[in-house]
Specification:
With about 290 residues, the chain is mainly alpha-helical. It contains 10 helices and 8 strands. The strands form 4 sheets. Strands 1-4 form a two-stranded antiparallel ribbon. A two-stranded antiparallel sheet has the order 2-3. It has a two-stranded parallel sheet with strand order 5-6.
């Protein structure tokens, strides 16, 4: 199966302006406009790099930690600072603890992660990190407990350990509070979440495909492209935009080359021999490029 991948974000250039991440031109783009988009069959570093390459490197970028994004930033925007979406950081912890943890350690960690979204100053950030490290120290021995399952010794509280690991890696990387850096926030507050793209772009693209279920795969792709064109702030006329759109033949060619899987020796079809575009976040190891 395949997926339509698109991406846009609120970026801040060296001039301190948000919107189009250009260093030398005025801020002519509002925060809700699509900066760039790219179609791929999976989130991986090559797809992210292809998407990011045409965009002038911003000072900071907000990410949900998608697969391959960190590598793409290092290679394409080596001087760009990364802000990890605090809501996604909290959601990752919640996935392991649930909203009603049974253990005291889980209840405390859930509240610590939830408080991430209320951090507004560097002092609050320092207190949060201290609080989290205190939790790690207090429950360290508890999280080392092991249980014998099917003859193997495994960690008793594996889910809590994973929740701890997800936060510890972000604390070590220093990407939780990049938005509070005074040098980056001179022109105004920076976002700590990527809600702008999730609500303003991703949800709208899902709605387009959901409301037009009868479209063929090719027309679904073109519908997504057209929506991105229409919300990019492009001053060209509709006729000029249509001339720049990929044709049905272009998309059919890519489907035929990249989506068709070879048959097995016994003549049976391999899995994944047809591209499905309903799931915008499906993970697949095979890249599907469209510049």
């Amino acid at each position: 199966s395949g997926s339509t991948r698109r991406w846009a974000t609120c970026l801040r250039s060296s001039s301190g302006r948000r919107g189009c991440p250009s260093r030398n031109r005025p801020n002519r783009c509002c925060q809700s406009r699509v900066v760039s988009w790219y179609m791929a069959r999976s989130e991986n570093s090559r797809a992210w790099s292809a998407l990011m390459a045409p965009i002038p490197a911003p000072d900071v970028v907000v990410t949900d930690g998608g697969s391959g994004f960190a590598k793409a930033v290092r290679e394409t925007w080596p001087r760009t600072r990364v802000q990890r979406c605090t809501f996604h950081a909290f959601s990752q912890v919640k996935r392991y603890t649930t909203t009603r943890p049974k253990l005291q350690a889980g209840r405390e960690l859930y509240l610590i992660a939830r408080d991430l979204m209320g951090i507004e100053t560097l002092h609050q950030a320092e207190l949060w990190v201290e609080r989290y490290l205190d939790w790690c120290g207090f429950w360290a021995d508890f999280l080392e407990d092991r249980t014998v399952v099917d003859g193997r010794r495994v960690y008793t509280h594996e889910r809590l350990r994973r929740a701890r690991s997800s936060l510890s890696s972000l604390v070590s990387a220093g990407t939780l509070f990049t938005h509070l850096d005074p040098a980056l926030a001179k022109a105004g507050p920076l976002p700590s979440t990527n809600n702008m793209i999730e609500g303003g772009v991703n949800s709208q693209l899902r709605a387009v495909l959901r409301n037009h279920r009868g479209l063929t795969s090719v027309k679904r792709v073109k519908a997504v492209f057209w929506w991105c064109h229409a919300h990019s702030g492009d001053a060209r006329t509709a006729r000029e935009k249509l001339a720049a759109m990929p044709t049905d033949a272009d998309i059919d060619f890519l489907f035929s080359v990249y989506s068709a899987s070879p048959s097995r020796e016994d003549g049976g079809p391999e899995w994944g021999d047809r591209a499905v575009w309903e799931d915008l976040h499906h993970r697949d190891p095979y890249p599907f490029w469209l510049d």
